[in-house]
Design goal:
Elements lengths: L8 E5 L13 H14 L6 H8 L5 H10 L3 H21 L11 H6 L4 E8 H10 L7 E5 L3 H5 L6 H9 L4 E6 L2 H9 L3 E5 L15 E3 L5 H4 L30
Parallel strand pairs: 1-2, 1-4, 2-3, 4-5, 5-6
Helix pairs in contact: 1-4, 2-3, 3-4, 4-6
């Protein structure tokens, strides 16, 4: 069934597991990034106190460990994320992760609608992926900001999806992702959702209902209408459309 698009609509994509192979950034990146920060600050941390400091989350355990160390949690978290982003970029530059084979579909999609990239990964990492792999079809590229605020705004919060819609002057569209949090974020932003099945999530059960499921980015070409023959037709005024981007509930990741 085609998802009929209008001139004020877009197709947005997640990055990890959609553009890049694999589930996401290796946990070892965050652990080694913590080593970098501890060495710079001449801190020694082991055992139970170390574990919450090297996880991805900015949570009560992380803040409690920082309190025991006598350091500011927001400052330490941002510093660790800065090092994580640098290490992620270095791994990508060394060829540790590759583009998925069906990414070539993005170029053809971009001839029909504007396309954007919105990821929970760090913004410097997302920018590097776009530049390194020459993903020139994207009209908008956004990863999350480094630090606690960026962590809180990550999907399933719709913050960065809403930012993409504003930047692309769009009110509707579809978001393509490989996790339940992508489906939830899409719904909260007023978007349709396409859940992409790949090897890493082929058997994963979903407790949310996406608009559609696909097994390849090429399948999106059949879902998105071709552009109208009159390319000069005026775009509809987003102000005339109902605001469908209000949050519709909250959910933890």
């Amino acid at each position: 069934m085609a998802i009929h698009r209008r001139n004020d609509e877009v197709v947005l994509f997640d990055m990890d597991g959609v553009m890049l192979d694999g589930w996401g950034t290796d946990d070892a990146v965050h652990s080694r990034a913590l080593d970098d920060v501890l060495e710079e600050r001449d801190l020694r941390v082991t055992g139970d106190l170390r574990r919450p400091l090297e996880t991805y989350a900015y949570d009560d355990d992380f803040r409690g460990a920082c309190e025991e160390l006598g350091v500011d949690p927001a400052s330490l978290f941002r510093a660790r994320e800065e090092r994580s982003a640098k290490r992620s970029v270095a791994r990508l530059a060394a060829g540790r992760r590759r583009l998925c084979s069906d990414v070539d579909a993005i170029g053809e999609l971009a001839e029909r609608v504007p396309v954007g990239l919105v990821s929970n990964n760090y913004h410097p990492t997302v920018e590097f992926v776009v530049d390194h792999f020459r993903l020139d079809a994207f009209s908008f590229v956004r990863g999350r900001d480094l630090g606690p605020d960026g962590f809180r705004r990550r999907k399933p919060e719709p913050h960065y999806l809403n930012e993409a819609l504003d930047a692309l002057d769009a009110t509707r569209g579809i978001y393509v992702g490989d996790r339940a949090t992508d489906v939830i974020a899409a719904e909260r932003a007023g978007l349709d959702s396409a859940f992409l099945r790949r090897d890493h999530n082929a058997d994963r059960a979903l407790d949310v209902e996406p608009t559609t499921e696909v097994e390849s980015l090429h399948e999106l070409l059949a879902l998105v209408d071709s552009p109208p023959s009159d390319a000069s037709a005026p775009r509809s005024d987003p102000a005339d459309a109902p605001d469908s981007r209000d949050d519709r509930g909250r959910s933890s990741e």
